[in-house]
Each structure stands twice: as C-alpha cells, then as structure tokens.
Amino acid sequence: MLEKTACRRGLVRVTVFAGLLAAYSSSFASHGAPKMISDMSAEERTSLLHDIETSVATALGGRSFSEDDALPVTARIRLDSDTNLVVVDLDERLGPKALSDDMQDLAELVRYHVIIHLDRIDGITGIHYTYGGFDREHWPENQKGDQSPRSSLRKRREATQPVAVVSPGHGIYFHSTYKDWRAQRETVNGILEDELTPVLAAHLTSDLERDRVSVHNLRETSQVFMHQPSSNPWWKMGARYLLEAKMPDKPEIWNSRPDDRRRDRERREDLRSRPLYANYVNADALLQVHTNAEATGKASGLRVIVHPRAADKRLAGTVLCSARELIHTKQEFAAYGVQRAPEVASDNIENGLADMPSVIVEVGFHTNPSDAEHLKNHDFQQLAMRGVAKGYRLFRENKPCEDFAVEAQPDVVGNPGIDVKFPVTIRGNPLFPVGIWTKESNCTREKGCESFQKSVYNLDGLAKYKVGYLCKREDLDKPPVEITVRMKDFDGVVSKPAVYRVQCARRTAARR
C-alpha cells in the first residue's frame, strides 16, 4: 500500500493499491500530437478515457466529500466531443453543494492528478462536472441570476481609466484546530507559492499601471509592516486579512462564511474574498496569479484557467498569446511552453463568483524542477507578467493577438544618384516607441552591417518614415540589393523581418 499526499495542505491523504499506482504511472508515455476529442480514433479515445479514469480513481481513492459528508465519492468519466471537455459525473447527492468550498477542494485534487492527460487534447478543453447526470444549475441554490447591468460608475469610468483587481494566490491563514498561522501551500523545488505570487503580482501591477490601468492589488507589497496578530510581515498574509483591515465594515467580503466551523474556514474565506471584492469595486477584470502543481512533476509551462464565459475565454486567449510572445523574447526562455488554448473549469470559485472577465494565470509548475528554476528567475518573472498586462491591453482594445512583423513591399527599380523610398508597414501590436534597424546585402564589412535607423513613437510617426536606398554605379548589372528591415518594441519584442529589394539599373531602364 502506498500513500499519496494531496496538493493542498488540509486535503486528506488517500490510499491506493500499488497496482493502481503502477497503471497510473504508465499512462504518461508519448501519445503523439494533441487532437480534438472529435478527431481522435476510437482507440485513442479509449486509451485517454482509461488513463483519466485511473487518475481520478487515484485522486478519490475512497475519499469522503467533507467533514459533514463521510460517504465516499464516486465518479464516472466521459469525453464530450461536442464541447471538447472531460466530463466528470459525481454522485447526485453532491449537486446542491456544487458551489461549495468543499467542491472547490475536490476539483483541485482531481485536476492535480488529471492535468497531465489534458495535454493530449487540442484546443480549449478542461473538466466539467455534473452530478448524477445533471448540471449544477439543476439545483436552485446554484442558480445565479444574470449579471447585473454595468453600473453607471463603471460606464463613466470606461471613458477614463479601466480598473483591474490583481489577486496574488494564497498567503498565510489561521488554522483553528492547530491554533497557528500557516501557508496554504508547501515548499516544493525551493518555491513556496504563497510567497512567490506577491512578487509576480508586483511586476504585473507595475506593467498595468504603465498602461494607465487603476490596479487594486489584494496582497500587501510592503516588506516593512507587520500583521500583529500573526507576527508575520503583511506581504505574506492572505488577501482576507488585508481586506479585513481596510474594510472592517464589509465582513460580507472577507468573512463570507461566518457560520462555518471547519478548521480551515479562514482559508476558504480568503479564496472567496477575492472575486467578492472585485465585484464590490465594479472591476473591469480580475487577474489572478498562481503557480501550478501536478502529481507526476512532468507537466510544465504557463496555463490559464477560465470560467466558460465568452469574454473570459477571449481574455485568456490574448493573455496566453501575449505571454508567449514576451517570454520568448529572451533566448534562454525560447523553449518555455505556453498553453495554446485556455483550460475551462466551470466549478472554480475564484472565477465563477466574479461578475467580470476573470482569469487564473498559472505561470508555471512549481512541481516541475525546470519550471521552478524559471519561476525563480527575475527576468522570466518580468516577461511573463508583462505578457499578462499586454494580453489585458489587447482585450480592452478589442484587438487580436498576432505576430509582430514588418510587412513586405513590392520590389522596385532604381538608378544611380536617385533615392528609392520604401514605406514601412507592420502587423501586430507593438508597444511604442519602436526602434528600426536595416541591413544591406551588399555590405562588405565583417561586422556592423546592420545599422540602427530611427525610433518612432506612434503609428503616425511610422507612417511618415521611409527606408531609403541610393543606387551606386557598382550596383549596376548585379543582383538586386536586399535591405532587411526589422523592429524592436519597448517591451523587447523583435519583429519578423521583411526584405525590400532594389534592382539598380541604368537611367533609361529606371521606373517605379
């Protein structure tokens, strides 16, 4: 018999047979390129379903649902080719508790064991829970009315400054049974998620403010001030305690479960306080920063978890695309994986309670040694968070995320003594100012053939700029001169270059 400890402190240990664990471990062999569920062969679906069933059995392992519900939890799994989701059907008795903190804990435990298999599914995917075949809305207590109309406060603000709530995950909380203050996560590969997320969020806050976003950061950034009840620095504390200190007259935000007598009640309140606060301030977006965990230590890369609302998925898409673009600007991070499509989690409380677009950015897996080294790297932290900020900017501006590239121009013919001028146009969404470099193919120097030309500060300035070339007599009767043009924006994103060609000819043949 072997014991497997759950990813979160406070989740019970589950016991599994050695044979089951062996089957679980064998499921991580290579399965080829990811495919949409609808594109999988019958054999591929059967294999994937078997591996997920094995992992879910490992996760549950006779586990009871909560302190108040001691019956074991059973699950049936199916792959939904219409939605591209993994459907986990739990016992019907759990339906009324679908939005409870206990369900959040169970869903995290299942995801911890199943996430490695989701990498075999292409496109937007995730885990959707049903209860005895019913969606959670089947029970009146889970039915949430339509989101209220955007308030006049938010409408007025749209013309001036957007508001984003930044939520660094976890933090120290009070455990009522042990009567001590403790982190919500454990240190793995030298990383304690509770203490790393405020560092990441500080980078994100700075980048958002640069974009003229009003930011509410839910974890204290000061390294000086102490939280007196715990004798810990404020920056280590969960969001619940900062909100309690700043809003003592709003216990419905930070003490949303006053009748809860469970030992980790304040951890659960901390989780709920974040979207509840974002709703209270009518935020335009909730950006939540976490690091990830997974049972095998093999899963890696940046991922984004969303509620299955259209706006949330669109925000997640621009965040993923922009994070990939920014992280890969530095060669040492060029191979770092960034998920192509968001992961849907319909029962996640942090996103589900939010009345505005909300994303959970899992920057990397602290359970993966390579990811952990990236997460400790200051440059990586900056680039990843700069990508999140850019993704939110594109979302606000309703712009697609596309590669930054200099566009090609038609070849031209020139003659000696007359400048040829090329307009410079681009694709993508660079952050101005951008620098422009050119390199001529007929340069004979060993070094220094590429030269900086100019910085331009907006699209109007770029529209006025032209790349020129003056044909010389020695260019006559030779192949076209090629001028490679590239740019680099203020974020450090380097464009895909374009090559402009000039065929130098005698004056009688010159034409434009």
Automatic annotation (TrEMBL):
Signal peptide region: 1-29
Record field: catalytic activity: Hydrolyzes the link between N-acetylmuramoyl residues and L-amino acid residues in certain cell-wall glycopeptides
SMART domains per UniProt: Ami_3 (SM00646)
Annotated segments matching region Disordered: 136-161
Top EC class of this enzyme: hydrolase
InterPro entries: MurNAc-LAA_cat (IPR002508), N-acetylmuramoyl_amidase_3 (IPR050695)
GO cellular component: outer membrane-bounded periplasmic space
Sorted UniProt keywords: Hydrolase, Signal
Gene Ontology terms: biological process: peptidoglycan catabolic process
CDD domains in the cross-refs: MurNAc-LAA (cd02696)
Recorded GO MF terms: N-acetylmuramoyl-L-alanine amidase activity
Top-level taxon of the source organism: Bacteria
Domain MurNAc-LAA, chain residue ranges per copy: 275-393
EC number: 3.5.1.28
Name under which the protein is recorded: N-acetylmuramoyl-L-alanine amidase
Organism of provenance: Luteibacter yeojuensis
